[in-house]
UniProtKB/TrEMBL annotation:
UniProt cross-references to PANTHER family, sorted A to Z: VESICLE-ASSOCIATED MEMBRANE PROTEIN-ASSOCIATED PROTEIN (PTHR10809), VESICLE-ASSOCIATED PROTEIN 2-1 (PTHR10809:SF42)
Species: Raphanus sativus (Radish)
N-terminal signal peptide: none
Domain of life of the organism encoding this protein: Eukaryota
UniProt lineage: Eukaryota, Viridiplantae, Streptophyta, Embryophyta, Tracheophyta
GO biological process: one example: endoplasmic reticulum-plasma membrane tethering
Gene3D superfamilies in the record: Immunoglobulins (2.60.40.10)
Xref: InterPro entries: Ig-like_fold, MSP_dom, PapD-like_sf, VAP
Pfam families in the record: Motile_Sperm
Name of the protein this chain belongs to: Vesicle-associated protein 2-1-like isoform X2
GO cellular component term of the entry, any: endoplasmic reticulum membrane
Similarity field: Belongs to the VAMP-associated protein (VAP) (TC 9.B.17) family.
SUPFAM superfamilies per UniProt: PapD-like (SSF49354)
Length: 216
């Protein structure tokens, strides 16, 4: 008898059947059985609790260096205690042998054939365990997202304060420009008024001289 999950004829992946159960649902577990030889290999799957599991195919023939998938099905157990085991037997058969052509004593140890066996453990996994792991992972992600959100809010606040400060500075500069323009306009008006007044005085003085020089 060979070690768990592997022998001289075949390899089995995974080396342990793990059934993930949800309430009132059936669970499945797939096994990949690969032929590691240049010969045809027949296999048979047995279990310590045949009434609990539905295995297909439970018997088959694998061509050289080929593989097949075996599916084991299990209904939801009343409790999560499991002591079940699977046994996968394999033996060499003549080339081009079909599964329907296998003799009844193919997997009998007293038949004189070389028979190899692999034992596989069975374990039950509750969906609550997986959910808890997902929750823990989710909580970690939430914490990371919260830290990232806080950093983003802080950065946006700093950018907003800088924008407000720059806007206030621009408004102050604009007011200064307006005041300068108003002061320049007022100075020009005073100069123009003074010039008009001076012209008026000159015209009045000329008229006065003209009237004074005229004969009475």
């Amino acid at each position: 008898m060979s070690g768990v999950g592997e022998n001289q004829l075949i390899s089995i992946v995974p080396d342990e059947l793990k059934f993930l159960f949800e309430l009132e649902k059936q669970s499945y577990c797939d096994l990949k059985v690969a032929n590691k030889t240049d010969n045809y290999v027949a296999f048979k799957v047995k279990t310590t609790s045949p009434k609990k599991y539905f295995v297909r195919p439970n018997t088959g023939v694998i061509q050289p260096w080929d593989s097949c998938i075996i599916r084991a099905q299990r209904e939801y157990p009343p409790d999560m205690q499991c002591k079940d085991k699977f046994l996968l037997q394999s033996t060499l058969v003549p080339p081009h042998t079909d599964v329907d052509d296998l003799p009844q004593d193919t997997f009998t140890k007293d038949s004189g054939k070389t028979l190899t066996e692999c034992k596989l453990k069975v374990s039950y996994i509750s969906s609550s365990t997986t959910t808890q792991r997902s929750s823990d992972s989710g909580a970690t992600n939430v914490d990371a997202n919260s830290s990232e959100t806080i950093s983003t809010v802080q950065r946006l606040k700093e950018e907003r304060d800088a924008a407000v400060k720059q806007t206030q500075q621009l408004q102050h500069e604009l007011e200064m420009v307006k005041k300068r323009r108003n002061n320049s306009g007022n100075g020009l008006s005073l100069k123009l008024a003074a010039l008009v007044g001076l012209i008026g005085l000159i015209i009045g003085f000329i008229l006065k001289l003209t009237l004074a020089s005229s004969p009475t």
